[in-house]
Design a protein that fits this description.
Layout (H helix, E strand, L loop, with lengths): L13 E3 L2 E3 L3 E8 L6 E8 L1 H20 L2 H17 L1 H12 L3 H18 L2 H4 L3 E7 L2 E9 L2 E5 L12 H6 L3 E5 L6 H13 L6 E3 L4 H9 L3 E7 L2 H13 L3 E5 L4 E5 L5 H13 L9 E7 H16 L19 H16 L3 E4 L18 E4 L5 H4 L6 E7 L2 H10 L2 E2 L1 E5 L3 H10 L4 E4 L15 E2 L2 E2 L6 H8 E8 L14 H4 L3
Parallel strand pairs: 7-8, 7-10, 8-9, 10-11, 12-13, 12-18, 13-16, 15-16, 18-19
Antiparallel strand pairs: 1-2, 3-4, 5-6, 6-22, 11-21, 14-15, 17-20
Helix pairs in contact: 1-8, 2-4, 2-7, 3-4, 3-7, 10-11
Bound molecules: nicotinamide-adenine-dinucleotide (NAD).
Nicotinamide-adenine-dinucleotide binds next to helix 8 and helix 9.
Length: 506
């Protein structure tokens, strides 16, 4: 069955004000299993009225939720964490079905995702403000972290559990949220929202609407929305950032990536080659931290190429439910067509196809979207090198020095992550300081920050100032309100009233 085949029985609903409700829709798409093409559910596209209803429910729930004691909110996050953990096998099955990654990759995603909730549960500590007494005679100053109201979280398809759970920090800090999952992979988010309902979040604290462009536009424009967290491609990240900030709202928009991996002559190849292959092709290369382009010192180039070919050829292509699978399908037919066209164009331009994944099939999965590991020897200025291809089409090029690698990396319009494989500390140090990226890996192929470290990027990989996760998330979802105080009684022991020297200075 292809993506356009029969309409499944299951019709998805929005979750608004604690209720699952049929969607007042302006159209629909079908959520499909990318390994088979089988339809999983009908995904209605919410109308403006349906989107507004979710924002209004969130706005209504905010006053009570912000006053809910911080330990109570933290306890709710712990309860939610427990439920997600208990349901991890079920959630992994859903991720595999709608996204195509393998069960072990799905469980790995869930481990990281649940750590978001754990980190958000530390809110009694992270939402603390600060006080300084006696900034002038009888004057004290403090800041408190105020929640702001309704936040929107917009997620991409490739991490169906992890990115939707960005909402954890928003609600833990006393805000309410409207989540819009990817229309390609909404089923994991829906199950996680059901678990949030079981955890006992009051109605309206967590809401979810289904849609695509028009839903995002409605949410970014709604006057009750205070801020937007977006994760997706650079093109849409920039659009969403401009739209949201033009509406005078906060926005953090994580964009796409085109990450470079540098293999030097001191790299321990026995250890690094499996790591490189996993970075290039794991999760069918549908990870923002995946290595896209390899820059290899000329002295080890031939050895790296031949060992990578062996490693990549050993990755079994297949359904994520098969325990031996090393690589699943790409997300849909449109993505597959795009990647094949990019390979065709590179070949026509004279690039050397070291590995060519076109035309592969998987028995029993004829309706799936399959592309094997593809490795193209090409120039760093070629289109296939400079464009983000969010699938298993990777490039390689020999280099003569670290400076050459740094120049190529810094010429990129993306600035997500860069990786170096070396045993020379000084070289690694120079690299990590010189590259214009948000993350650096040293002998680590996918240097993704864990929940309690901020994640972001530079250039078109990130629009905004405060990154996602950890303390940056707490900063993003709260406002540091400063309170300057003096008292007119004299019980405090100092002179009463504001020190004129303090008030008169600014
Ligand atoms: P996408 O940009 O196509 O979609 C992301 C979200 O934006 C979806 O919810 C979608 O419905 C919505 N959207 C799509 N078109 C829109 C429009 N014109 N206006 C407003 N909203 C719109 O991304 P994707 O294909 O789902 O995900 C893959 C991309 O996400 C890759 O580029 C990848 O690098 C990036 N990504 C980045 C990170 C990161 O941490 N920086 C993490 C994961 C994925």
């Amino acid at each position: 069955m292809s993506d356009s085949a029969a309409r499944p029985d299951r019709v998805l609903q929005n979750y608004v004000a604690g209720q699952w409700i049929d969607i007042d829709s302006i159209g629909e798409t079908i959520v499909t299993n990318p390994a088979t093409g089988a339809g999983l559910a009908v995904h209605p596209m919410s109308s403006a009225a349906a989107n507004n209803a979710a924002v209004e429910a969130a706005a209504e729930a905010f006053p009570a939720w912000r006053k809910t004691p911080v330990p109570t909110r933290a306890a709710m996050m712990f309860r939610y964490r427990h439920l997600l953990h208990e349901a991890r096998d079920e959630l992994a099955d859903i991720i595999v079905a709608e996204n195509g990654k393998s069960t072990s990759e799905a469980l790995g995603e869930l481990l990281r995702a649940i750590q978001y909730v754990e980190n958000a549960a530390t809110v009694p500590e992270t939402q603390k403000g600060a006080v300084t007494q006696n900034v002038a005679t009888s004057v004290d100053i403090e800041y408190i972290r105020d929640p702001l109201g309704v936040f929107v979280v917009i997620a991409p398809f490739n991490f169906p559990a992890m990115i939707p759970l960005y909402f954890s920090w928003a609600v833990a800090t006393g805000n309410t949220v409207v989540l819009k999952p990817s229309e390609l992979c909404p089923l994991t988010a829906i199950r996680m929202i059901e678990l949030a309902e079981t955890a006992g979040f009051p109605p309206g604290v967590v809401n979810m609407v289904l849609g695509d462009k028009s839903t995002v536009e409605n949410l970014c424009d709604h006057e009750a929305v205070q801020g937007v967290t977006f994760v997706g491609s650079s093109e849409i990240a920039e659009i969403v950032y401009r739209r949201t900030t033009n509406n005078s709202k906060r926005c953090q928009a994580q964009g796409g990536a085109n990450n470079h991996l540098v293999v030097t002559d001191t790299a321990v190849l026995d250890r690094c080659i499996p790591n490189i292959a996993s970075s290039l092709f794991g999760c069918a290369s549908q990870r923002c931290f995946a290595g896209s382009n390899l820059l290899v010192y000329r002295s080890v180039y031939d050895e790296v190429v031949s060992r990578l070919v062996v490693e990549a050829n050993a990755m079994k292509l297949g359904r994520g439910t098969d325990p031996d699978v090393g690589m699943g399908p790409v997300i849909n037919e449109a993505a597959l067509d795009k990647y094949v066209a990019a390979i065709d164009a590179a070949e026509a331009a004279g690039a050397n196809l070291i590995l060519d994944g076109r035309g592969v099939t998987v028995d029993g999965c004829e309706g799936g979207h399959w592309l094997g590991p593809t490795l193209i020897e090409t120039n760093p200025t070629s289109a296939v090198w400079t464009t983000e291809l969010f699938g298993p089409v990777r490039c390689i090029h020999p280099i003569d020095s670290l400076d050459e690698a740094i120049d190529i990396i810094n010429d990129s319009t993306y600035g997500h992550s860069a990786v170096i494989y070396t045993e020379r500390g000084g070289l690694a140090r120079r690299f990590s300081q010189a590259v214009e990226t948000g993350q650096v890996g040293i002998n680590v192929g996918t240097p993704a920050p864990i929940a309690f470290y901020p994640v972001g990027g530079r250039k078109s990989s990130f629009y905004g100032a405060l990154r996602g996760r950890g303390v940056d998330a707490v900063d993003f979802y709260t406002d540091k309100k400063v309170i300057v105080t003096t008292w007119h009684d004299t019980d405090g022991g100092d002179q009463a009233g504001v020190d004129p020297a303090f008030e008169g200075t600014v």
